[in-house]
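Troubleshooting: if your tokenizer reports a length mismatch, compare your output against this known-good record of 289 residues.
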Amino acid sequence: MVLLDQRVAKNMSNLMRMRALERFRAILFRLEARSCFGATRAGTLMAEVASAAPVNPTTAFYLRYGPSPATGSVNLAPGFRLHSVTLLRSPRGRVVGQQTASFAVRARRSAGVWVQPLSRPTIRWYLPHVRARRPAPLHLRFPRSARYWRLVWWLGASKADHSNMVVAAASRAALLRATAAVQTRPAACAALAPRGGAGLRRAWCLPIGHSTVLTAEVPVEAQGRRRYVPFDLTLVQALNDLGIANPASLLPTLRFWRRFRGRTVPLHFDRHSAAVLAVPLMAGDEIRW
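Known-good structure output:
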């Protein structure tokens, strides 16, 4: 009975700590909106919040990024990268290549972020003698007052309804309202298209065509090199994305570092168990094998 009471007390202590961290997260966003510090500093503080207490990796991910996997959206923060892939089809509808482009998410001097193309779109053809009309490049152009950006994905109940959208707004409150509107009715995105000047509007939405997939990526260090992996991937999925066909085979030599209480520390795990491969990656994580 004493042992049970101790476990209950420990769980309550962890719950109270979690609630305190969530309150701090909300206060942090309000202070950023008031330009008390820039988005880069806010991101650094969010990373510290996520590592301020010994919580499980999924909880740490939620504290840093919010419930993105459940909501189908992610707030774009400095250091993120957007990566677009557009399939190219022949006149008969056959997929013959792809066009890719990348965009950097930069911090503004005050609150919020802006998105900048990293390079011209590149095309890779799958078949040597088959070509298709090049699609127009993806332009993520929003009014200068659009300080808060969010990628929204896979909203529909069926594959035919799935889509990507970029929502941007002048404030976090406007971003939340616009996101809720387009998630409830995706067709509403077209009515919020960022045409012309900012006017009196506070939020904008850009629908991404069904032939294009736009992915948010976070930076990690893999084998000593800076790499980008899609947001919300577990370690096993990220290793697959980096070209490792059998991540479990790396367990004997795998090493994993993460920020914890202001320092980069190694993650200790059972090398005879694949449980570590289910840890969701966060920006700044380091892995070697």
